[in-house]
Write a structure and sequence with these properties.
Layout lengths: L12 H18 L9 E5 L4 E4 L15 E4 L4 E3 L8 H10 L5 E5 L2 H8 L10 H7 L4 E2 L8 H10 L4 E4 L3 E6 L2 H24 L7 H8 L2 H7 L5 H4 L2
Parallel strand pairs: 6-7
Antiparallel strand pairs: 1-2, 1-5, 2-3, 3-4, 5-8, 7-8
Helix pairs in contact: 2-5, 3-6
Length: about 240
């Protein structure tokens, strides 16, 4: 378990959250989804608090003590660094979606290219996108680190799992940290496939009937993602 040292007891909830957020940061950097000081990640804590990455630090070199604890208005409660300048974008998602537990912002190359072209990833080419990620729209251009950014994404937060930020990058959210991370990974993978489809000339989208049939399997897939019940284990 990340953040756990045998013989020294279980980590506190905050210490564990910090170790997990750092692990996600390092993975983003290792996979090339961020470069230099790009990107920011946050995690909802108990008591109306949030853990967020600081400004001006590479996600590949971030450590737990660099992370910042804030309240929902962005006031720093713990930490000696400034929270990410894009923090209001995160707060906007949390305020609009009480079910969201984490937000990830990155600049993966293929997805960001689609963002620069203002091209959404919304054509139903892939069954996995229909059943999981869902369509990814493009938010209007907004000047980074300004109130324009949260305003630009709000129309899309309620009904989507992520959004492309025009000429900027990508943003995903999920019920927990790894759900939000997985969606960023799937978004970039999808962008690469859509790019190859464009290079080949023309893809064949799924029909509306096929899309509805795939969506009808959502409950089945959710069941498979859970541990087997006692009845299934002894069946």
């Amino acid at each position: 378990m990340s953040g756990y040292i045998p013989g020294q007891g279980a980590p506190s909830a905050l210490a564990f959250a910090k170790s997990q957020l750092c692990e996600a940061c390092h993975l983003l950097y290792q996979r090339g989804y961020v470069a230099s000081n790009d990107g920011n990640l946050s995690l909802r804590l108990e008591g109306g608090r949030f853990l967020i990455t600081p400004s001006g630090v590479s996600k590949g070199r971030i450590t737990p003590e660099m992370l910042v604890v804030c309240d929902g208005d962005g006031h720093v409660l713990e930490g000696d660094r400034h929270p990410s300048s894009e923090a209001p974008m995160h707060w906007a998602v949390y305020a609009a979606r009480p079910d969201v537990g984490a937000v990830v912002h990155a600049h993966p190359a293929a997805a960001t290219a689609f963002a620069a072209c203002r091209r959404p990833l919304d054509v139903p080419y892939l069954t996995e996108v229909v059943s999981g990620l869902g369509p990814i729209p493009v938010a209007p251009y907004a000047l980074p680190s300004t109130p324009e950014v949260p305003q630009s994404i709000l129309p899309f937060v309620a009904d989507h799992n992520g959004v492309l930020l025009a000429n900027h990058g990508a943003l995903t959210w999920g019920s927990d940290l790894w759900s939000a991370f997985d969606r960023m990974e799937q978004l970039e993978h999808t962008a690469k496939i859509y790019l190859n489809i464009a290079l080949l000339g023309e893809g064949v989208p799924l029909t509306q009937q096929q899309v509805e049939a795939i969506r009808g399997l959502a409950g089945y897939y959710r069941t498979l993602a859970q541990p087997r019940t006692k009845e299934e284990s002894h069946g």
